[in-house]
Amino acid sequence: MNKDQVKGRFEEAKGKVKEIAGNLVGNKDLEQEGKVQNAKGKIQSGYGDLKEDVKDAI
Asked: Looking at residue 54, what is its pLDDT?
């Protein structure tokens, strides 16, 4: 597991927490911020997954 995978999954988790918290308290801005952070984390972890696949293929 590389640093992009770790950081990405951590960002996904933080985003999901913000999303749920925003939904629970009715704060649409916090909920939206969480969704964006979650998406960024998925992109970063996907990039890390791709790097690992390339490294394994070589």
From this structure: 95
